[in-house]
Every structure is written in structure tokens, then in C-alpha cells.
Specification:
Layout lengths: L30 H16 L3 H4 L5 H6 L2 H15 L2 E12 L2 E10 L2 E9 L5 E8 L21 E8 L6 E8 L5 E7 L10 E2 L2 E2 H10 L4 E5 L2 H4 L6 H5 L3 H17 L4 E11 L1 H11 L6 E5 L6 H13 L7 H19 L17 H9 L2 H6 L5 E6 L7 H11 L5 E6 L26 H11 L2
Length: 454
């Protein structure tokens, strides 16, 4: 079994980008033929037929992607997106002299578009993995939790921010003519949608419907790295930090709520999950209009260390770390050491990707101390943690408690049965658990609502 590397904090999309070499002129294949070839290529990847999958690579792709590298890329994709399940629709676009086939695929954690770039000879010149443009047909139907009363709220489509990074969002408003407290939901790592969909579970939709049923307005939106995934290449990707990935859009969401007549501008809260919880204190330092923070599974330790810890946990889930897993963990340890060495390096290649991110992203993370930042705040904070969470663990919660437990403005609570998604389960938590339909626990909804409405 290959080691599963669950990345808690990662960049926009899982992507392999190779330069598209100039193509010679030849009679082009038909769209139907290219679509069929793209489907066949994805099928070969899914079947582990990496030698066969490379047979139509052009020269640049052959040099960039050896058979071993292609296999490692596919394994890393499934580590983050879940196990490949099936192919869905295909669509074609043209960017002369290239034609691009998008094969929408269902993975365990959601839908991705496999973007296969063909040159004029019908050879594969580029390969990308990105969030699906339209994943609705691949997603299971949402089942409302028992605590959501659909007769007590309504939803409205809104736009968060403006200009090139504007984002589609959903504002869930309690029905009635009152002025309500409101929250902004800030995503975990990766290119999340507004519902923070993971498998059949929709963490943010549960929170939105549950809190709105209790008289709290909720704003959720597509994450920038999902909505604009095609822009995260080159300099944009090389310069990506927490500011661009998370913070700017959270601030824009607060601004939107402040302008809504249904919202009490003095009672706007940030609810962050995972990465969103880790970054929430930093968001608050830049906006004194935020009334309080709710941290759901916020990490306190270096992310690269947590990646290694998670991978070790998963590799050892069957009680045995085999030879392949041991090598994978050793390789991961070396990359962790690369990350830690960045601050002392005199020369850094800004385009080098280490553990899924460029140096600028890692240096920004290294410079940020979430616990120390939270200690400097006087606004109310509610820190919640699932005790079965293997991604952000009770070790992190202990650090929050040690630093903030005596602060009058901070409330801390744990839930014995809950995992990283704040969904109940039994026994050691594993990625397969995320594929079981569940809902954010009612106790979490009640605790957050009670704390905000206190």
C-alpha cells in the first residue's frame, strides 16, 4: 500500500504543468477522436497502465514525465482527492494551435477535471488536474440534517469581492424582518467549493442551514483557488501566500455583510475550519470590525510536520509500514527538511514546488504563529476540536488550551466522537470515513449558535 499523504494546507489545485512544445502542422484528428483518446488516457491512468498512457506524449512531455513520475503524480492526486471512481462528461476547448479535452472525473473527495492538451499532431502536450467546472452531475444529492428547518431561512446568490478575483457565494438569511448576527465561513485547505464538499458530506452547507435555522445569517463562497484555478500558474502560483489564498476573500466577505441591511454590522463573526481556523486570528488582526472567532480544528504546529505525522499515521493504519511506505515516508521527510531549510537559504528558486507549494507559500506559513497571534487578541474566541481528528489533533488543541485556557475571552471544548469534519464516528478515523454520508454534529451547531447569541 502506498502512503497516503493528506495535505492539511495546500495550494490551489493538484496540478502538473508542463510546457507545451510547438507542434508541427498535420491533419488534425476530429474532436470525437480526441475525446475518445482523452478518455482512454484517463482509463489507463486509473488502471495503472502508465507505460501505455505515455505512448502519445510529445517530446516535451516525455522528457518532463517519466513513467515513474507519472505514476507518482497519479498517486499524489488520489492522496489528496481520494480514490478514482469513474469518468463523467467530456468537453472540448480550443486554444490554437492546441485543442483541450476536459474529462470530468469522480474521485473519493469530489469531482476533478482532467485537462488533456493535444497538439496539432494529436500528441499529448500538457496535463492538468483541476477542480471540476461543473461537478453537480457527479455530486450526490444533499440531504438536509434534522436540525435544519428550511421554513426558517432563505438563500440568495451573491458576489464576494470585485474585479478579477470576485467569487460567487450564497447568503443564507433567517426569514423575518429582524437584524441578525452573521458569520463568514472560511474554508480548509485545497480548492474547496462554497459547501466545503468532501465526498457526500457538505460541512459548510450543514453549518449554514443549521445556524440560519437558529437566527444567524451565514455567508459562504467558492474558494478563490477553485473558482479561478486556471489562473494559478506561473507568477501567480509562485507568489501565492495565505493572503491571496484565504485572507483577502474573507475580508471581502465581511465587507459584503457589513453593507447588508439584514445584518448587524457589530456582530459579524469568522468561523474557520482547518486552514480557515489556523488563519482566523491573522484575519482578525487586519479587521477590528470582526466581533469574534470560531476555530474548528485549527492547527498550531508547522504544517510540514503535520503532513509527515498524518502520512505516518495512515501508513501504519494496518499495523505495518511496508517497504514502499517506508520509502515514501523517507522521501516525505526529506521534503519536510527542504521546507524547514528555506528561511536560511541565500538563493531560492521561486518556481520550485515543495510538498505542493512554492517557497513563498512556505515562508509565509513559517513566519506566522497562530497561537501567539490569538494571544494578542481581546475579541471573543470559541475553539472546538473533534477528539477523533487525525489531521488536526488533540496535540493542537492542547496548545490552544495551554496558551488561551485562562483567558476570559476564550471558550474551549472538545467532542469525543467527532472527526476532522465534526461528524460523529467510532474507532480510529481514516479517509474512508469521509465517504460515509453524515452531518456536522448537532451539538456543534448548538454550541456555536449559543455562543454567538449569548
Amino acid at each position: 500500500m502506498k502512503p497516503l499523504i493528506r495535505i492539511v494546507l495546500s495550494i490551489a489545485a493538484i496540478a502538473l504543468l508542463t510546457s507545451c512544445a510547438p507542434a508541427g502542422v498535420s491533419s488534425p484528428l476530429s474532436d470525437a477522436q480526441l475525446e475518445e483518446r482523452a478518455r482512454e488516457f484517463v482509463g489507463q491512468l486509473a488502471a495503472g497502465q502508465f507505460k501505455e498512457a505515455r505512448q502519445d506524449f510529445d517530446m516535451t512531455m516525455n522528457l518532463a514525465l517519466s513513467q515513474q513520475k507519472l505514476e507518482e503524480t497519479w498517486a499524489a492526486l488520489q492522496d489528496q482527492a481520494g480514490t478514482f471512481e469513474k469518468q463523467g462528461e467530456v468537453r472540448m476547448e480550443s486554444e490554437p494551435p492546441y485543442r483541450i479535452v476536459f474529462v470530468t472525473c469522480r474521485f473519493g473527495m469530489g469531482a476533478l477535471d482532467v485537462r488533456v492538451v493535444f497538439n496539432q499532431k494529436g500528441k499529448i502536450s500538457g496535463l492538468f488536474f483541476q477542480p471540476a467546472k461543473d461537478s453537480s452531475a457527479m455530486a450526490p444529492e444533499y440531504v438536509a440534517p434534522a436540525y435544519a428547518d428550511i421554513n426558517t431561512f432563505q438563500e440568495e446568490e451573491v458576489t464576494v469581492g470585485s474585479g478579477e478575483w470576485q467569487l460567487p457565494g450564497t447568503l443564507t438569511l433567517p426569514t423575518g424582518s429582524g437584524v441578525y448576527p452573521a458569520v463568514v465561513l472560511v474554508h480548509g485547505s485545497g480548492p474547496n467549493d462554497r459547501d466545503e464538499t468532501i465526498g457526500p458530506n457538505r460541512v459548510f452547507k450543514d453549518l449554514a442551514w443549521g445556524l440560519a435555522s437558529r437566527g444567524i445569517a451565514v455567508l459562504r463562497y467558492e474558494k478563490r483557488t477553485r473558482e479561478h484555478s486556471d489562473q494559478f500558474t506561473g507568477e501567480v502560483l509562485n507568489n501565492l501566500t495565505l493572503k491571496e489564498e484565504v485572507m483577502d476573500d474573507a475580508q471581502a466577505a465581511v465587507t459584503l455583510l457589513q453593507a447588508r441591511p439584514e445584518v448587524d454590522p457589530s456582530h459579524i463573526y469568522i468561523i474557520g475550519h482547518s486552514l480557515g481556523a489556523t488563519v482566523a486570528p491573522r484575519i482578525a488582526t487586519q479587521n477590528d470590525q470582526i466581533a469574534g472567532l470560531v476555530l474548528l480544528a485549527g492547527a498550531t504546529r508547522p504544517i510540514e510536520d503535520m503532513m509527515l505525522e498524518q502520512s505516518t499515521y495512515l501508513a501504519n493504519a494496518d499495523g505495518n509500514i511496508d517497504k514502499d511506505e517506508a520509502k515514501g515516508l523517507d522521501d516525505l521527510q526529506k521534503m519536510v527538511e527542504q521546507v524547514k531549510a528555506l528561511p536560511d537559504q541565500e538563493k531560492i528558486d521561486p518556481a520550485e514546488i515543495i510538498l505542493g507549494a512554492a517557497p513563498a507559500y512556505w515562508l509565509d506559513l513559517i513566519a506566522y504563529n497562530p497561537v501567539a497571534t490569538a494571544e494578542s487578541l481581546t475579541l471573543p474566541m470559541l475553539i472546538l476540536q473533534g477528539e477523533r481528528d487525525y489531521q488536526v489533533t488533540m496535540t493542537d488543541f492542547a496548545a490552544w488550551k495551554a496558551a488561551l485556557g485562562a483567558h476570559e475571552n476564550v471558550t474551549l471544548k472538545t467532542y469525543p466522537a467527532l472527526n476532522h469534519l465534526f461528524i460523529a464516528g467510532q474507532g480510529p478515523s481514516l479517509p474512508a470515513e469521509y465517504q460515509i454520508l453524515g452531518h456536522v454534529d448537532a451539538a456543534v451547531i448548538d454550541d456555536i449558535a449559543g455562543w454567538i447569541l449569548r
